[in-house]
Amino acid sequence: MNQPIIDIGVNLMHRSFHQDREQVVERAVANNVNPLIITGTSLRNSVEAAQYAGRYKGKLYATAGVHPHDAKSCDEGTIAKLKELAAMPQVVAIGECGLDYNRDFSPRDVQRKWFAEQIRLALELNMPLFLHERDAFSDFTAMLKEHAVQKAVVHCFTGNLTELKAYLDMGFYIGITGWICDERRGKHLRDLVRIIPLNRLMIETDAPFLTPRDLKEKPADGRNEPAFLPHILQAVARCTGKTVEEVAKATTETAVEFFRI
Fold it and tell me: What does the pLDDT look like over 17-48, one tens digit per residue?
């Protein structure tokens, strides 16, 4: 397959990539995974992601945002700093932001406050949102509806049919990870992926997390990386009954248009 595919969610600034970050990018390119979009999850991490992406023009992009786990570290200067990052050409979305009521690493009212602030920023800048939701569906969708958000991708979707239909009805895009390769936890996702229109579907590794369980040659350290995205692509193609080429072309075109890259 010669069609390049885009990994829309890579935590490339994660400490597990400190030793060999450049080689990870090279392996991705060698496997036709290019460009990569680095996920910003905190202010510091978003700064690092934007700076690193700036060194690889056209190969790397980044998002700028604060994950709900880190919402407690936000202060009055956070949004202004995110706005500065968003002005950089390599920064293509606001996020990863949203609500996480599963871990509750930040108090829920604090999560909601800073999620709302990031929604407002994305709307002000006319930029897409890169979203995270876990066990917070009703508050999450209520906030997005309240702000009339139209352009967003629900990253690493693992929800149910009701949730998927709600997101699609709101006009959102869906990011599918290696979760679909897990014959235990991902079983329901294999059925659901069929109802996602190809022009609303994107694929991602969420590396270094969510290493596909059914990889023939598992990495010794268990670390996921963007070079494994073709494996996820093949799983999505099998589940949707489409060819690998068709899914590759569609998800790439969708990502290019969505992130304006």
Answer: 999 999 999 999 999 999 999 999 999 999 99
With beta carbons less than 8 A apart as the criterion, state whether 118 and 129 touch: yes
Question: Residue 210's pLDDT band (boundaries 50, 70, 90)?
Answer: very high
Between CA 93 and CA 210 the distance in angstroms is 22
Question: Is the pTM for the entire model greater than 0.85?
Answer: yes
Local structure of 18: helix, strand or coil: coil
3-state SS assignment for residue 10:
strand
User: What DSSP letter does each residue of 99-130 carry, written as one string?
Assistant: EETTT-SS-HHHHHHHHHHHHHHHHHHT--EE
Give which of 191, 169, 171, 170 is closest to 180, Cα–Cα: 191
pLDDT recorded at residue 99: 98
Between helix 161-169 and helix 137-146 the angle, nearest 10°, is 10
Cα–Cα distance, 23 to 37 (Å, whole number): 16
